[in-house]
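Two proteins, back to back. First:
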Amino acid sequence: MEKMKIVLSVIFGGIAAFFRQYYLIIALVSAVIVFDFITGIIKAKIISNGWDSEKGTKGFFKKIVLLLSLMFGIFLDFSIPLALSSGIGVEMPFSTHFSLIIGFYIIFNESISICENLYQCNEKAVPKWVVDFLKITKDKLDAGE
């Protein structure tokens, strides 16, 4: 029983340490994904007068891929410094922030989608210039400007 307590303490301690560092980006990404999914369902109900299960299923799996890409960013944050230090003995003079970059990119794109969904449901819900601003900014980011 004592060994089980030690193993569980190590496991849950590791999980707590992991989430202490990454909880905010995971929480923000999860929130915008859920919010976009909900606004997409509302838009489908208002605009299309119903739910298209094929489109909904596709959208659900796209959201899963977004979460997987965030997890991959977190994996890169851990694995690259570890591989460099243990593999070739190189210490990185800075921290990697792949998870933050990927996370904020997801947040930005999902925010555009949320604004578009809200605007299509009710043009007075979000000012058109906000939607346009987000689209223009996304295009510039994608172009590397």
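And the second protein:
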Amino acid sequence: MRARVIYNPTSGKEAIKKNLVAILQILEESGYEASAFATTPEKNSAKKEALRAAKAGFKLLVAAGGDGTINEVVNGIAPLEKRPRVAIIPAGTTNDYARALKIPRDNIVKAAQVIKKNQILPMDIGKANDHYFINIGAGGYLTELTYDVPSQLKSVFGYLAYLVKGAEMLPRVKPINMKLVYDEGEYEGKASMFFLGLTNSIGGFEQIAPDAQLDDGKFSLIVIKTANLVEILHLIALMLNGGKHIKDPRIIYTKTTKFYAEALDDKVKMMINLDGEYGGDAPMTFTNLHQHIEMFANLDDIPDSAVKGDIDEYRDATTAFVKEVEDLTDEDLDGDGKISNRE
């Protein structure tokens, strides 16, 4: 089997680049013929390489870098009918996705060694019009926070930078008159933001969507109706105190498979944030793609409450996959020594 490491050479003070030989060695030890691609400043560099590698028959893509690199790799393969598995090696600022999958975020080599465990989790992916996202989709004035945090500040202070910038922005927050449609109903009125989560880790916090599941086919939807500074600070305090904000009447909190958002005032542009980056303007339709991409995860450390499926069943499926690989014979290979397309 072939694996392609798609890495950002500048992430984490070039941490991936410095440990690339060790990463490739771990992949070889795991049974993969491994190679690497360094992303470039060209727009969608990782996305284009992920699509090329998938069409070339690579069975595993290793997204090595920050959440932005992972997002691009997913965007490259998500539209395909047959998608390779994905492993991640975090080297960004907050590394929300790695946090959710319980992959080590402070040691590149240990993160790569998770691949050796052969533990697979079929992850939900979000689709927003023609774009895909792995962690968050959001809209409203509060979401503009991520655009205004300087990259240098994020590199030095991580998610604390978001808190500092957020406190600075709060006095400027204004509500937007929105129409929001979700599985259980519809909301028309003013709100300072809406938020769709696929995991429970957002900006380094694990209490924003405390009961989020990674594979249940549903977004965690949060709508903050108030724009009052004192009330927003109170909601943040409730969030930090065990996720108690989800029961507050100033918030709509529910689960939904689909979501539609638009600004009701034609003069107001509501920008949509996808995984921390600008993803277009509302109106926008969001769809949860249930268990769309198989990800390598540290299942031993993921709590049962974080997944809808049976963790033991996922482990059994992984064992079957490993056995299938071990049972491959020369008859399963084409003339170039690559695995032929067998079901």
